[in-house]
Design brief:
By secondary structure, the protein is of the alpha/beta class. Helix content is 40%, strand content 18%. It has one domain (3-273): Divalent-metal-dependent TIM barrel enzymes (TIM Barrel, Alpha-Beta Barrel), CATH 3.20.20.150. The strands form two sheets. Strands 1-2-3-4-5-6-7-10 form an eight-stranded parallel barrel, surrounded by four helices. The protein has a two-stranded antiparallel sheet with strand order 8-9. The radius of gyration is 18 Å and the shape is globular. Residues 57-269 form the Xylose isomerase-like TIM barrel domain.
């Protein structure tokens, strides 16, 4: 058993909050990863957030039987410009404070890059940058502990958190129940390791399975050395085996479809419902 979710902004078109909640519910989806900046950008500034706003969105979604599972605040947490980084971290901290009103259990982000525009840089793989990231995550987790909201961190190949081993090291350095890992296997797959993707997930559960709080399920195709995201069922992700591993180790865990949009969501739901998944 899993808690299947979608990202609200993977439904194309203009929606009011009520219409978005209805559209998600119509897909037979009961959970959403909700990004204010993507779905309702005019409401996403931290100074605009307030308990009433969170309660409003919580109620709109709950009327359709949908829960806000994750509140997204995806940002460049290690932005190279100190003033801009401080604005980003303060925004994340305000999201942590207000998450309770949205009834979200965590606020989520990737780690970012030393390149302001989130570009590729081998500097991201240095121990110095990783130490910088640790200090950032320690700060956010202290705020999460204060407000009793989890900080959900997602790894990626072009980030300082680029491997299972780096994730395990982060967890060791930030030993808090309020640090959780949002695990996206495709974010860590290369053309050379694609064939070993299930072993990659098995390794993750061995190293830090108790810290995985959400699985991002993103399909992919290979074009030479490039890993290209595609809707679920159109690529090479071995999702039946990965979901079986998840159920074995983390039953009822959140599973968020990513890069699967609109009609593709219906196909993905049908594919997952057709699997013989067992505890």
């Amino acid at each position: 058993m899993i808690h299947l979710a979608i990202r609200g902004h993977d439904l194309s078109g203009e929606y009011t909050p009520k219409q978005l909640a209805q559209a998600i519910g119509a897909k037979k989806i009961k959970n959403v990863q909700f990004a204010l900046n993507a779905s309702f950008p005019d409401l996403s500034a931290p100074e605009k957030m307030n308990p009433g706003m969170g309660t409003f969105f919580k109620n709109e979604f709950q009327e359709q039987g949908v829960q806000i599972a994750l509140l997204s605040c995806y940002s460049n947490l290690i932005h190279p410009e100190p003033g801009e980084r401080e604005k980003i971290l303060q925004k994340f901290e305000r999201y942590l404070f207000h998450a309770r009103y949205f009834c979200a259990s965590m606020v989520a982000s990737e780690t970012g890059s030393v390149i302001a525009a989130l570009g590729y840089s081998e500097e991201n793989f240095s121990d110095e940058v990783f130490e910088d990231l640790i200090h950032v995550i320690q700060r956010l987790v202290r705020v999460g502990e204060k407000y009793r909201i989890m900080v959900g961190i997602e790894a990626g190949l072009n980030h300082p958190l680029y491997s299972n081993q780096r994730i395990a090291e982060l967890i060791e350095r930030v030993p808090s129940d309020y640090l959780g890992i949002i695990y996206d296997p495709t974010n860590l797959i290369t053309a050379k390791t694609a064939a070993d993707q299930v072993a990659l997930v098995e390794e993750a559960f061995t190293l830090f399975g108790e810290k995985i709080v959400c699985l991002h399920l993103k399909d992919f195709q290979l074009s030479g050395e490039e890993v290209i995201p595609v809707p679920l069922g159109e690529g090479q992700i071995r999702y039946p085996e990965i979901l079986q591993l998840l159920i074995k180790h983390k039953p009822y865990c959140y599973v968020v479809l990513e890069e699967t949009k609109d009609a593709g969501i219906d196909r993905a739901v049908a594919l997952i419902e057709g699997l013989d998944l067992k505890n």
